[in-house]
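Need a sequence for this fold. Nothing fancy.
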């Protein structure tokens, strides 16, 4: 059992835990061993071990596998100090059930027809089987880490509410959630880590920041609870939850999704240099379908991972197939087969429907993705500057309906392009208003 330790320090620490003192509510069946181990926090760590693997689950933040608590429980069990039980504890049974369900789903995915197996060499079949087993083990390990991390996140969120939101200011404003964000990185939940980093900046965001911070906490709590019930959710919502947590979908898996052919007009480009990986977000609209899509390009080492996408000029059209990522609403996409080189667009995008149609579409999107904060927008309207420096810019439609514009210096460019007349604007709709990215001067796209 000590040979399972990942390093010498884990081996020494586990030996120190191989005694009854730190353990409570331990038990063992033919295939499982479980127990609670007192740690430095107020709540003991939950440890479950499946002996046939062996496989481990511990609620501690350690990234080692197995951690010292799992090894200590194994040694305690080997010493005969863990009693046999008729049934496992609730948390042990739930974890074992999740592992069985994942294994069954993996087996179903790898089942092939008898005719196909006749043409497969035994050696190839064995290699494929071992690869799938290794992949399933990695998936199970990550799922366990994510579940453990989100469990800690739930407790952290409750603590923030118990202590009070003003504590978020603290001695280091803008950093109150950084430690938990780092923990989410360790738990392989990068999407949650990014959301926490954004929440760290909320106390510095001006008036009414407690309202925004509490709303952000509620969204993360909802995401953690949704992840707990991942297997019970409809397929589309489950894919959305996985994406928000930070699970990735392979490029080839996306390209196997149905193709949506069209001439795609690049309506907006936004660079996000302060993301964990510098990102460029491109919004496109299909000329025939009217459908909007988001293309992402990343620059992890100063060069674009997908330069053909990243370097698409604003206002150009791309005759190509798009393949949308799983999830709802389907917005993010990859470019598949291209039928021609990018060409200059023939006019502005479709802005039919007005503000009411835009808000209705956004409401439908939030109904299927409660964590949605950005929505593609194409509107016709007249930009109106505020009457005072502290006022609010607006985009006003022909019917008098007004949408707040998020202030940037580029709004003066928008006003100049419009000349005080209606103009087509493309951008990103957020809870705070519209971030204008592009305005059309006739058929020419003007970046803002």
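Here you go.
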């Amino acid at each position: 059992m000590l040979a399972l330790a990942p390093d010498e320090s884990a081996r020494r620490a586990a030996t120190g835990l191989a005694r009854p003192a730190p353990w409570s509510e331990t038990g063992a069946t033919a295939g499982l061993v479980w127990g609670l181990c007192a740690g430095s926090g107020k709540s003991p760590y939950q440890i479950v071990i499946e002996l046939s693997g062996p496989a481990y689950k511990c609620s501690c933040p350690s990234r080692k596998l197995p951690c010292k608590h799992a090894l200590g429980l194994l040694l305690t069990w080997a010493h005969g100090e863990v009693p046999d039980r008729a049934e496992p504890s609730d948390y042990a049974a739930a974890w074992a059930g999740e592992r069985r369900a994942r294994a069954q789903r993996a087996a179903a995915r790898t089942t092939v027809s008898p005719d196909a197996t006749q043409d497969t060499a035994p050696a190839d079949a064995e290699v494929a089987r071992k690869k799938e087993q290794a992949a399933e083990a990695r998936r199970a390990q990550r799922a366990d880490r994510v579940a453990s991390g989100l469990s800690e996140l739930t407790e952290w969120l409750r603590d923030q509410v118990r202590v009070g939101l003003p504590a978020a200011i603290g001695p280091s404003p803008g950093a109150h959630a950084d430690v938990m964000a780092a923990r989410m990185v360790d738990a392989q939940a990068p999407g949650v880590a990014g959301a926490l980093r954004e929440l760290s900046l909320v106390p510095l965001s001006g008036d009414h920041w407690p309202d925004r911070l509490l709303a952000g906490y509620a969204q993360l709590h909802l995401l953690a609870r949704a992840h707990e019930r991942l297997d019970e959710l409809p397929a589309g919502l489950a894919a959305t939850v996985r994406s928000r947590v930070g699970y990735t979908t392979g490029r080839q898996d996306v390209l196997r999704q149905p193709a949506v052919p069209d001439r795609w007009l690049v309506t907006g480009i936004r660079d996000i240099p302060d993301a964990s990986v510098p990102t460029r977000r491109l919004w496109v609209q299909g000329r025939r379908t009217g459908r909007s899509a988001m293309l992402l390009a990343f620059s992890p080492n100063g060069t674009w991972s997908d330069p053909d996408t990243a370097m698409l000029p604003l206002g150009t059209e791309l005759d190509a197939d798009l393949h949308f990522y799983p999830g709802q609403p389907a917005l993010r996409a990859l470019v598949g087969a291209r039928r021609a080189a990018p060409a200059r667009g023939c006019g502005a995008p479709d802005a039919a429907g007005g503000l009411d149609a835009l808000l209705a579409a956004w409401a439908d999107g939030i109904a299927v993705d409660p964590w949605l904060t950005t929505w593609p927008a194409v509107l016709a309207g007249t930009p109106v500057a505020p009457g005072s420096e502290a006022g609010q810019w607006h985009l006003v439609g022909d019917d008098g309906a007004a949408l707040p514009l998020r202030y940037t210096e580029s709004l003066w460019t928008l006003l100049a392009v419009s000349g005080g007349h209606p103009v087509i604007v493309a951008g990103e709709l957020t809870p705070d208003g519209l971030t204008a990215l592009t305005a059309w001067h006739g058929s020419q796209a003007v970046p803002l």
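For context: The chain has four domains: 2-111, 144-231, 251-344, 354-447.
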